[in-house]
C-alpha cells in the first residue's frame, strides 16, 4: 500500500524542516510547495480510504440483503414444495380410485360377456340389455382413463414448477457465492489490478460505478442486476454469460413510480463496449443509449422485452434501449431483439444471422433488421 509511505515521507519532511529552520529562518518556496503538495495528497489519500470503506460497507450491506432475499426464497420454496406434495398425494389418491374403478368395470364386463355367450338365440331383449350395460361400462372406463391421464399431466406440471423454482434458487445462490470475488470500488472506479492474469466475476448488484475502467479483462458470468455503470469502459473484455437484467429491489418497491424506468434497470448509458464479448448474455430491460458497441458480439443473447409483464402497465418500460448507440459491425447472430429500441442507432455492417428483430420477425440466414 502506498498510503503509509506517503504519510511517513510527510512526517520525515516536516521533522527535517523543523530541525533545520530556526525561529528567524524562513522555509524556502520550493520546500513550502512540496509540503503543501504532500499535505494535499494526504488529504486525497484519506478521502480515498474513506470512499473505499464506504464502498465496502455498501457491498456488505448488499450481500446481507441478498442473503435475506435468498432466505425468503428458501422459505417460499419450502412452502411451495409442501403444497405441491399435498396436491400430488391427492392426485395419486384420485388416480388409485379411478384405477380401482376401471378394474371393477372391466371385471363386470368380463362377467357380462360370459353371460352373453350363454344366452339362447331367442333371448334378444336380455342380450340387448347386457350389451348396453357393457357399452356403458366401456364409456365409464374411458372416462376414468381420461381423469387418470389429466391427473398425471397435472402432477408433471407441478414437478416442473418445483424444478423452475429450484433453478431460480440455484441462480440466486450462485450470485451469493460469487460475492467472495467481488471487486473493491476505489477512486470512482473499480480496481481490476488483481484480474490481470486471472478470471474475475463482477458483482455489481444495485451499485453506482461511473467512469470505471473494466477494459481488457475476463469478466464472464458477472452480475449487473440494476447497476448504474454509465460512461464506463468495457472494451475488449469478455462478458459472456453475464446478466445485465433489471432489479426491482434496488430502491424499494418502485411500481408506479415516475422514476421506475431508471430505478429498476441496468444503466450502460454512454459506456464503451467496443469489441466486447457479450455473447449468451441476459440484456433484457437495459438502458444502453448512446453507448459504443461497435464490433461487439451479441450472439445468442436475450435482448428481448419478455420481462414486460412483471409490472402492471409496464409494457413500455421493460425493454432494452440502444437509442443512438453505435452498433457498427456488431454480431447479432441468433440473438433475440424483440421489442428493443434501435432508434437512431448506427447499424453499419452489423451481422444478422437467424436474428429475431425488434418487430418479432426473423432475419433467417440472409436478412437484416431495420
TrEMBL record:
<dbReference type="InterPro" id="IPR001646">
    <property type="entry name" value="5peptide_repeat"/>
</dbReference>
<protein>
    <recommendedName>
        <fullName>Pentapeptide repeat-containing protein</fullName>
    </recommendedName>
</protein>
<keyword id="KW-0175">Coiled coil</keyword>
<dbReference type="InterPro" id="IPR051082">
    <property type="entry name" value="Pentapeptide-BTB/POZ_domain"/>
</dbReference>
<feature type="coiled-coil region">
    <location>
        <begin position="35"/>
        <end position="122"/>
    </location>
</feature>
<dbReference type="Pfam" id="PF00805">
    <property type="entry name" value="Pentapeptide"/>
</dbReference>
Amino acid at each position: 500500500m502506498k498510503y503509509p509511505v506517503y504519510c511517513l515521507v510527510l512526517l520525515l519532511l516536516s521533522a527535517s524542516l523543523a530541525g533545520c529552520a530556526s525561529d528567524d529562518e524562513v522555509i524556502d518556496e520550493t520546500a513550502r510547495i512540496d509540503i503543501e503538495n504532500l499535505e494535499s495528497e494526504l488529504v486525497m489519500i484519506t478521502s480515498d480510504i474513506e470512499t473505499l470503506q464506504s464502498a465496502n460497507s455498501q457491498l456488505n450491506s448488499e450481500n446481507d440483503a441478498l442473503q435475506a432475499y435468498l432466505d425468503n426464497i428458501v422459505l417460499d420454496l419450502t412452502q411451495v414444495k409442501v403444497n405441491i406434495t399435498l396436491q400430488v398425494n391427492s392426485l395419486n389418491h384420485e388416480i388409485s380410485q379411478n384405477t380401482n374403478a376401471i378394474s371393477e368395470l372391466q371385471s363386470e364386463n368380463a362377467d357380462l360377456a360370459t353371460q352373453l355367450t350363454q344366452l339362447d338365440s331367442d333371448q334378444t331383449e336380455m342380450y340387448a340389455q347386457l350389451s348396453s350395460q357393457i357399452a356403458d361400462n366401456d364409456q365409464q372406463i374411458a372416462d376414468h382413463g381420461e381423469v387418470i391421464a389429466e391427473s398425471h399431466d397435472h402432477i408433471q406440471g407441478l414437478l416442473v414448477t418445483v424444478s423452475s423454482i429450484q433453478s431460480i434458487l440455484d441462480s440466486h445462490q450462485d450470485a451469493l457465492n460469487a460475492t467472495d470475488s467481488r471487486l473493491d470500488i476505489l477512486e470512482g472506479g473499480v480496481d481490476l489490478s488483481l484480474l490481470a492474469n486471472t478470471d474475475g466475476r463482477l458483482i455489481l448488484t444495485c451499485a453506482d460505478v461511473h467512469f470505471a475502467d473494466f477494459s481488457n479483462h475476463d469478466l464472464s458470468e458477472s452480475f449487473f442486476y440494476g447497476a448504474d455503470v454509465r460512461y464506463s469502459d468495457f472494451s475488449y473484455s469478455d462478458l459472456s454469460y453475464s446478466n445485465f437484467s433489471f432489479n426491482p429491489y434496488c430502491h424499494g418497491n418502485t411500481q408506479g413510480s415516475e422514476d421506475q424506468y431508471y430505478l429498476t434497470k441496468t444503466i450502460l448509458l454512454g459506456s464503451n463496449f467496443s469489441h466486447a464479448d457479450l455473447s449468451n448474455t441476459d440484456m433484457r430491460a437495459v438502458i444502453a443509449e448512446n453507448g459504443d458497441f461497435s464490433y461487439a458480439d451479441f450472439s445468442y443473447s436475450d435482448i428481448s422485452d419478455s420481462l414486460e409483464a412483471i409490472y402492471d402497465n409496464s409494457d413500455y418500460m421493460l425493454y432494452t434501449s440502444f437509442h443512438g448507440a453505435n452498433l457498427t459491425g456488431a454480431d447479432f447472430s441468433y440473438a433475440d431483439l424483440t421489442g428493443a429500441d434501435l432508434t437512431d442507432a448506427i447499424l453499419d455492417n452489423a451481422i444478422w444471422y437467424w436474428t429475431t428483430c425488434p418487430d418479432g420477425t426473423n432475419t433467417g440466414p440472409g436478412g437484416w433488421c431495420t
